[in-house]
Amino acid sequence: DIVRGKDLYLGNKKQNEIQREKEKLQENLKNIFAKIYNSLNDDGAKKHYGGDPDFFKLREDWWYANRGTVWKAITCDAGGSHYFRPTCDSSDSQGPSMTPSQCRCRDDRVPTYFDYVPQYLR
Fold first, then answer.
1. Which end of the chain is more exposed for a tag (fewer CB within 10 A), N or C?
2. How many CA atoms lie within 13 A of 105 on its CB side?
3. 4: Cβ–Cβ under 8 A, 6 or more apart, which residues?
């Protein structure tokens, strides 16, 4: 959500603070994606992503292309961890089973990506 620019968390709301944490993070992400945009060599890609000062479309596309890798990076140290409910197809035809390792099914498939579930439902 943060990478895609769709995070609902409002950050630190201290009245004395000039910038909230989220605003600082969003500014850093704009700078990062501006560098990615500036490194694009294809004029068609630059035209496609141009005109958006916050680079939301580029951020969305980057997330779509990299979310599987990001998921693995987040869960690689979650050995033996399971989802909160059975989500993998079991081979015995008795219904879903728990994820056996690092929140992935045996075929290394992620049962679901929570990034498209509304934040308040996660």
1. C
2. 15
3. 56, 59, 60, 63, 115
Number of neighbouring beta carbons within 10 Å of residue 87: 16
Question: The dihedral of CA 38, 42, 43, 49: what is its sign?
Answer: negative
Render pLDDT for 1-54 as a digit per residue (tens, 0 to 9).
Answer: 566 666 655 555 555 465 667 778 888 889 999 999 999 888 888 888 888 888
* Residue whose C-alpha is closest to residue 1's, from 34, 25, 31: 25
Distance CA 14, CA 28 (A): 20
Q: For residue 33, what are the contacts with CB-CB under 8 A and spacing of at least 6?
A: 55, 58, 59, 62
Tokens of 89: 């197809």
Phi/psi of residue 96, each to 5°?
Answer: -70, 155
Residue 88 contacts residue 95 (beta carbons within 8 Å): no
Distance CA 53, CA 17 (A): 25
- Residue pLDDT, tens place only, 81-93: 555 556 666 666 6
Residue ranges covered by each domain of the chain: 1-75, 78-108
